[in-house]
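Researcher: Quick test of sequence recovery. Tokens follow.
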């Protein structure tokens, strides 16, 4: 009669032998299934459906000798029916093997890792039951055997996922893979590292190697199988390989494409097979307990990293092909309102598998975009360009300074962009683009010229030129990324210092490094600042950093402050600009300052007269920012806060002009929480107040920055020299690139002289 023993995952050893000729016939039937674990964005859900083990080898064995009496395969429902010829009474056992040798046109296996470097030679197997003392003339129904979680289920979930990958390839490419692919899984080797990778030399089609925690991580399994697809079906992968991490944003662009596309592939396999939320990527910790994960993310919301990030690449591809019918977290809604892009996976497959394979240059996301625009009917180029910029900060467009490709077309930098250290943002687009800028330099100043925030595969080459175009200095990279370090491409930025021999224009040329052909485009920031300033240079000093006046409606008040050039040789050039607290330029009807511009020789001074007319102002408090911009290399931007309090009283007393704080202080932002609604700030912004005390005796360098909770810089609000006074900085909820930030807690930190303070603010969208 039939008997059962505990089902375990055991190894199919090569001692199996085929039985000799027999004299009686019987049939063994049954069904094999495995226990699956369903995933969502929070990890395993606790739902464990049983699924059929499809198209896997089934062996009928003599249990005592492991001799194979007959073999076949399960069907798509996990059922098997195998005829056996035998003439002995014996105990019969049945095993299912994670191998496809008995299924025509299918070439896959899940192998046992028997050493830390082993490619795997033996497939995983699971015993489905025993039938003791079987008579050769009697048919056997083994019933249903289920490989459970941590008791044989993992290899067959991997095997089933491999089959989904093969079947989806047949849909898009016309046939299942003809090259054998195997997955080698470590369940018993003393190797504690958490590994998942594809190796092309592990067999005819390569091999996927998985650590013990990945048996049910379908998104990880499909990602690694995606490497097999891109390498063997079009060879559109020049991935240099090596260690890389989710969230890297300065990757080799060959790697970001080579890693981003497989995740996109896996998402479409899951979409095709009907998974709920195919847009998620989940890395569990191997524990089926709900809500326990290493990390997870939604492809819909990975933003702002550029094409040198694998996350941005996979999200950009997903945004091209999803739509209202996608079963994501917003079914029935196009997740890109205003960007109606619903392209098919087949179109992306045409570009990758057929067209990119013809390229001799390294293959990256920019090559995909170029091939798409050249070969696809109605490619929606401009919409995609805007969508990639909005969601992934991929900047495949000319920057706002164009045309600036020659010395004659050089863009003049403002005072703030030289002495103020304000960055200018540039793209190297299209291929071969150059960026030229010019500024008036002083021989008494040693200038630091740097590129930074390298994205989309940027690799800059800086050079300094005189007015005739002669090169005076250059720098390619500050370092060389080491092999295997795939988030070190900030080392491809450029940095140099230059001190001119005489006053006059200095031209800066920034082009793509001629020594790096791994990409064609890129975007970056250019920063020119004073590294060292001699006493000869212009030095702007102001007598007051704030003006506070109270006046009844209908009356005017006049105040003044003095601008002095304390430099010893060079002329100070300045202009005045009226601004709101958010630095927007505004012509306030109640404020008039004169003169609006001037030139001061060493030791000279101008008195700035400020007329405040309450009749033109609103009742209550009116606030303006009077910004003095100059060619002072250290103090290119100096603000004067102007406050006019308008009352209805008949007699008032002016508040003192110089009510200066007694100590350093950083106030709590207001409002808090700070609400962003409908893609914009719901109010004028989060106001952050800070104070510089009177005892500082002159100017103080002040830096005020926003950070996320991981300590990553989000935005610099202030980075300039301040006099004593009370100040307000306004944050509109956007990062350095102008993108609105997400929900959560943020930190803002001020550093001024020896003072430093940090506070929290909350953003709600």
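Model:
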């Amino acid at each position: 009669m039939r008997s059962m023993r505990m089902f375990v995952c055991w190894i199919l050893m090569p001692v199996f032998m085929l039985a000799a000729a027999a004299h009686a016939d019987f049939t063994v039937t049954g069904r094999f299934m495995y226990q699956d674990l369903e995933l969502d964005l929070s990890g395993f859900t606790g739902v464990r459906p049983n699924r059929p083990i499809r198209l896997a080898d089934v062996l009928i064995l003599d249990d005592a000798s492991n001799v194979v009496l007959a073999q076949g395969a399960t069907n798509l429902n996990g059922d098997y029916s195998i005829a056996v010829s035998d003439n002995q009474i014996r105990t019969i056992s049945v095993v299912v093997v994670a191998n496809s040798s008995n299924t025509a046109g299918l070439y896959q296996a899940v192998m046992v890792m028997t050493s830390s470097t082993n490619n795997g030679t033996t497939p995983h197997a699971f015993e489905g039951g025993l039938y003791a003392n079987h008579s050769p003339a009697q048919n056997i129904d083994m019933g249903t055997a289920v490989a459970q979680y941590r008791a044989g289920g993992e290899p067959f979930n991997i095997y089933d996922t491999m089959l989904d990958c093969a079947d989806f390839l047949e849909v898009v490419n016309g046939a299942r893979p003809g090259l054998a692919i195997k997955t080698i899984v470590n369940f018993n080797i003393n190797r504690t590292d958490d590994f998942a990778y594809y190796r092309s030399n592990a067999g005819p089609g390569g091999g996927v190697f998985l650590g013990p925690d990945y048996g049910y991580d379908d998104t990880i399994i499909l990602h690694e199988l995606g490497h097999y697809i891109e390498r063997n079906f079009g060879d559109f992968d020049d991935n240099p390989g090596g260690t890389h991490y989710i969230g890297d944003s300065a990757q080799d662009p060959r790697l970001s494409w080579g890693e981003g596309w497989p995740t996109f592939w896996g998402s479409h396999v899951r979409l095709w097979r009907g998974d709920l939320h195919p847009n998620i990527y989940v890395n569990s910790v191997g524990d089926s307990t709900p809500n326990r994960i290493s990390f997870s993310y939604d492809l819909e919301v990975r933003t702002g990293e550029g094409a040198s990030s694998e996350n941005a690449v996979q999200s950009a591809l997903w945004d091209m092909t999803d739509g209202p019918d996608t079963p994501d977290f917003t079914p029935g809604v196009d997740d890109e309102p205003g960007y109606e892009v619903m392209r098919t996976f087949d179109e992306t497959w045409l570009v990758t598998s057929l067209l990119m394979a013809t390229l001799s240059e390294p293959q990256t996301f920019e090559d995909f975009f170029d091939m798409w625009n050249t070969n696809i009917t109605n490619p929606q180029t401009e919409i995609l360009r805007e969508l990639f910029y909005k969601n992934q900060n991929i900047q495949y467009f000319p920057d706002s300074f164009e045309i600036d490709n020659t010395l004659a077309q050089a863009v003049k930098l403002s005072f703030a962009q030289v002495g103020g250290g304000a960055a200018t943002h540039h793209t190297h687009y299209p291929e071969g683009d150059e960026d030229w800028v010019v500024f008036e330099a002083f021989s008494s100043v040693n200038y630091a010229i740097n590129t930074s925030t390298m994205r989309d595969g940027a690799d800059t080459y800086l050079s300094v030129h005189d007015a005739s175009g002669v090169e005076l200095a250059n720098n390619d990279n500050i370092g060389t990324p080491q092999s295997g370090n795939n988030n070190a491409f900030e080392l491809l930025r450029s940095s140099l210092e230059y001190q001119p021999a005489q006053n006059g224009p200095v031209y800066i040329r920034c082009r793509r490094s001629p020594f790096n052909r791994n990409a064609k485009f890129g975007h970056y920031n250019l920063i020119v600042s004073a590294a060292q300033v001699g006493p000869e240079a212009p030095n702007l000093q102001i007598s007051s950093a704030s003006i506070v006046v109270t006046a009844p409606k209908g009356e005017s008040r006049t105040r003044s402050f003095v601008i002095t050039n304390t430099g010893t040789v060079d002329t100070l050039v300045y202009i005045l600009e009226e601004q709101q607290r958010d630095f927007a330029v505004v012509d306030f009807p109640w404020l008039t300052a004169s003169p609006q511009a001037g030139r001061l020789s060493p030791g000279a001074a101008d008195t700035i007269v400020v007329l405040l007319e309450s009749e033109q102002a609103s009742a209550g408090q009116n606030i303006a920012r009077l910004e003095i911009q100059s060619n002072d290399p250290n103090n290119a931007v100096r603000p004067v806060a102007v406050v006019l309090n308008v009352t209805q009283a008949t007699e008032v007393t002016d508040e003192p002009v110089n009510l200066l704080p007694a100590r350093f202080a950083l106030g709590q932002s207001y409002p808090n929480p700070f609400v962003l609604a409908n893609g914009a700030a719901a109010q004028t912004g989060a106001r952050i107040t800070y104070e510089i005390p009177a005892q500082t005796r002159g100017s103080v360098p002040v830096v005020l920055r926003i950070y996320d909770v991981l300590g990553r810089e989000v935005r610099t609000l202030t980075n300039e020299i301040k006099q004593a006074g009370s100040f307000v900085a306004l944050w509109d909820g956007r990062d350095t690139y102008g993108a609105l930030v997400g929900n959560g807690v943020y930190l803002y930190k001020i550093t001024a002289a020896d003072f430093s303070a940090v506070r929290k603010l909350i953003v709600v969208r």
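The first strand starts at residue 2 and ends at 3.
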